[in-house]
């Protein structure tokens, strides 16, 4: 165990740029742990917090000495609009995933919008989506004039349930949009089998799932296309940025064209005299975005390995605490991305202490956690969209009657999860096993004192 610790400390110091974030860990690793007082008074009740927020790796990771030269070069070159660096980023990202092509975009939302559009999703189509996702997944469907149809989740993996997908297929269904939510892979084998049998397209929302793997294949490369986000909170952080990957040359040529004002693929971006060959927006990545991406890409594999090691440890450890039910991965998952580490909190095992109070108490110990998503399928913006002028003219008659739509889009498993979920963010999984031990210890401290915390 201790050689594992030092190897990790080494990786962390050299390639992750988190020096100074593991002082407590080294003490624990050598057995010289200071009095951590795991059993002491909870911080929320005036006890000493088990750690401070400085314990965790600061995100985004940025090391001026190694990271700034390429970015400065991009800035000083005066070439800021899409050029060589963007192309290099696309090549490197495609290679890392084992995809034939990659097209970068301004962000993940627009990667989804462009991909859906060029996969032919539009007015009259239904797209099957999970309810447990970031709102961008749903917006990308609505922006294209299609209707999101919600298929409930698997309560253990939190991913879209293939059985529920099959139940939601109608003659209007065009595409299945699985999301590898929290960076844990969806059940792609079964989803692809359904798609094949029912002649449907599959677009993977892999915006949270960089380098996640199912049977050794990267998330985003299994469906007809996959989309990624490089927004700051994501595991590959650029600030804003996104990508579409696919092995389909024709699709990727059309996506390129659509993301560049409908100019034919191959026209140098910036050319003003080209004739458009299709409708298109303009969602090109900038050179300095790509420069940041190229720098961050160097760390992604090492960081992903550490997150997985820590998640395995934490899952086992938390599974032994009553009332804490960690997520599960499907059997064929060979690697997760772990944008988030999630578990279900069962308050009846904690003397009825509410999830909000649990989150408050855990955050007071220096373990900043959150409750995650609220149900998406019932949000009013969907009703407003379906009842809008555009949708009314695209869908004749009663096709989008909201009452019927809502009745058909109930997701009880998702509602239950939204009430119980607790999230730990990916940067905390870049710590040591000793840090994971502190997370578990903090939860145990709350478990033991649940009664008093509840009364406070
Ligand atoms: C972040 C995210 C997006 C959108 O990506 P942006 O880069 O923020 O536009 C889409 N889907 C999911 C699941 C995401 O987490």
Task: Please describe what this structure looks like.
The protein has a domain of 231 residues: Type I PLP-dependent aspartate aminotransferase-like (Major domain) (Aspartate Aminotransferase, domain 2, 3-Layer(aba) Sandwich). The chain is built from 17 helices and 14 strands. The strands form 3 sheets. The protein has a 7-stranded mixed sheet, with helices on both faces. A 4-stranded antiparallel sheet has the order 10-12-14-13. Strand 4, helix 8 and strand 5 form a beta-alpha-beta unit. Helix 10 crosses helix 16. The radius of gyration is 23 Å and the shape is globular. The N terminus is likely disordered. The site of pyridoxal-5'-phosphate has 14 residues, from helix 5 and helix 6.
């Amino acid at each position: 165990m201790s050689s594992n610790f030092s190897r990790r400390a080494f990786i962390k110091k050299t390639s992750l740029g988190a020096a100074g974030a593991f002082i407590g860990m080294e003490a624990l690793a050598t057995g010289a742990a200071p009095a951590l007082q795991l059993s002491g008074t909870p911080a929320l009740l005036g006890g000493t917090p088990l750690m401070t927020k400085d314990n965790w790796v600061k995100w985004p990771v940025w090391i001026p000495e190694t990271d700034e030269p390429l970015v400065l070069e991009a800035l000083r070159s005066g070439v800021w609009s899409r050029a060589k660096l963007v192309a290099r980023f696309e090549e490197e990202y495609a290679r890392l995933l084992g995809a034939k092509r990659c097209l970068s975009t301004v962000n993940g939302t627009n990667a989804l919008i462009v991909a859906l559009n060029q996969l032919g999703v539009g007015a009259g189509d239904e797209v099957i989506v999970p309810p447990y996702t970031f709102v961008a997944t749903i917006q990308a469907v609505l922006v294209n004039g299609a209707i999101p149809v919600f298929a409930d989740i698997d309560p253990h993996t939190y991913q879209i349930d293939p059985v529920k997908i099959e139940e939601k297929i109608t003659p209007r269904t065009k595409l299945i949009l699985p999301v590898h939510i929290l960076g844990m892979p969806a059940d792609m084998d079964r989803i692809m089998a359904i798609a094949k049998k029912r002649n449907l397209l599959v677009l993977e929302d892999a915006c949270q799932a960089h380098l996640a793997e199912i049977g050794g294949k990267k998330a985003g490369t299994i469906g007809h296309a996959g989309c990624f986000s490089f927004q700051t909170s994501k595991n590959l952080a650029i600030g804003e940025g996104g990508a579409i990957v696919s092995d389909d040359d024709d699709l990727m040529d059309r996506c390129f064209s659509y993301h560049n004002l409908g100019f034919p693929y191959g026209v140098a971006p910036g050319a003003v005299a080209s004739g458009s060959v299709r409708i298109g927006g303009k969602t090109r990545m900038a050179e300095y975005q790509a420069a940041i991406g190229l720098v961050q890409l160097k760390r992604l594999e090492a960081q992903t390995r550490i997150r997985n090691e820590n998640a395995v440890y934490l899952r086992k450890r938390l599974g032994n605490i009553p009332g804490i039910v960690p997520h599960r991965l499907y059997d064929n998952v060979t690697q997760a991305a772990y944008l988030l580490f999630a578990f279900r909190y069962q308050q009846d095992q904690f003397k009825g202490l509410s999830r909000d109070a649990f989150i408050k108490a855990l955050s007071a110990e220096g373990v900043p956690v959150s409750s995650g998503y609220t149900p998406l399928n019932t949000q009013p913006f969907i009703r407003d969209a379906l009842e809008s002028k555009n949708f009314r003219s695209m869908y004749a008659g009663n096709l989008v009657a909201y009452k019927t739509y809502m009745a058909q889009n109930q997701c009880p498993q998702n509602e239950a999860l939204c009430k119980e979920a607790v999230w730990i963010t990916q940067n905390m999984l870049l710590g040591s096993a000793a840090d994971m031990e502190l997370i578990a210890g903090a939860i145990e401290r709350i478990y033991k004192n649940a009664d008093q915390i509840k009364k406070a």
